[in-house]
Amino acid sequence: MMDCEIAEDGEVYIEDADIIAETTLDDEDLPDCSDEDDEYDEQADFDEDLGDSIYKFTGHTSGVFALACSPTNPLLVATGGGDDRGFLWKIGQGDWGAELGGHKDTVTSIAFSSDGQFVASGGFDSVVNVWDASGNFKCKLEVPVPDEKMKKKAPPTGGFEWVSWHPTDHVVLAGSNDFSFFGKTNDFSAGMWGLNTGAFTELSGHRGSITCGDFTPDGKTICTGSSDLTLRIWSSETGDPIYVVGGHPYHNKGLTCLAITSDSRCALTGSEDGSVKIVNIKTGKVVGTLSPGHSKKVKCIGLSRSPSFFPCAATGGEDEKLVIWDLERSSPRSICNLESEVTCLTWIGTSKYVAAGCADGDIVIWDGLSGDNVKTFRGHSECIESLSVSCNQDFLVSGSASASGDATDSHGTARVFEIAGFR
Asked: How far apart are the C-alpha atoms of 82 and 311, rounded to whole Å?
């Protein structure tokens, strides 16, 4: 048995008789005890594959361009990608999943109905597919064919860029990018389908791609924005146009995004010209401009839902800025500078925090009151295409582009980050 002596300072000394052999080591054989290694040791629990995420879904074989969290099940997520497929999957449950097939082109958008019973996926194949929350196929929504002759002569072109559900009913709204219905030239349409009735309503009148749209929270009205520089306001009951908003003092370039206030009175719209406008939905009048704002295209917009928070919105742009707006003053409360363009954003429930997805793969959490960057999540290596928050506000789910930006080149991923501390 080896004998050893313990000194008063706690050091342990081996007796000479217990030494078996001595080996001389060069400096190159010794580990480098630099400050960098000390920093690495402090981050030893950082998983290079997961990054800051707690779960990664890898079912897609190309970029993940759309995702949505269920409004009723905090673990259920729907995603769509450039592999022409959608998926339903559960956070942390790798053994549960359902493939949402049936598309013949990129799945560009995906959304749950407000009661969480159904999920709709829209694609560049001019089709909206509807599934139940267990992944069972329910129906395919297409533009009705006037006749077979017309279908062969001039089928729909382009595809659906976004889908949305009525806030209280099983009615689906979908808008198009470079899309026209059966031979209609210079006439770009959105479509509305009733799942229970099978009725289809065409919203016709835009003269350019319909880049954004949604129902108002009261369900009575629809707003659609287009590259034709206009916002159109429609009756959701009849599909009839109510107002066309355009010209001075509105945007001088195409619309890119919109958000509607919780009282259904106003729409905020962002544009390629970098401006953000406020439109009164009840009158069709431009009632405000948020300024000074972005110097390049506005990519995304979102409204705070906090009942105790001052009325505010957030916008992200190609100018690598996230702007927090005080809507009462129509001026910035905070201008947050990032390292790459902001591609998508979402407020975290009813909290004061907003999450911004960036082109460099980072997801940044900002305090909407102070304008401080309180957290940066890393894990993605490519552009963040979409963000969604679980209904219990425990998780932030993100989807990223494929490695080269080519939808068919390499894997994109969906990742889950823990955000319970930002409620």
From this structure: 37
pLDDT of the residue at 95: 74
pLDDT in tens, 91-146: 999 878 899 999 999 999 999 999 999 999 999 988 999 999 999 999 999 877 65
Residue at token pair 């342990």:
12
Which helix (H) or strand (E) covers residue 234, if one does?
A: strand 231-235
Q: Determine the 3-state secondary structure of 41 from DSSP.
A: helix
Model pTM greater than 0.90? no
Report residue 376 as tokens: 């940066």
Determine the longest span between alpha carbons in the chain, in angstroms.
101
Task: Answer whether 337's CB lies under 8 Å from 324's CB.
Answer: no
Cis peptide before 74 (omega within 30 of 0): no
Low-confidence ranges of the chain (pLDDT < 50): 1-7, 9-10, 12-13, 25, 27-46, 150, 181-183, 405-409
User: In order of start, what are the domains of the chain with their CATH numbers?
Assistant: 292-423 (2.130.10.10)
Please report the DSSP string for 303-368 in residue order: E---SSSPSEEEEEETTSEEEEEETTTTEEEEEEE-SS-EEEEEE-TTSSEEEEEETTS-EEEEET
SS3 of 271, please?
strand
Q: Is 37 helix (H, G, I), strand (E, B) or coil?
A: helix
Instruction: Kindly report the number of other CB atoms within 10 A of residue 349's CB atom.
Output: 17
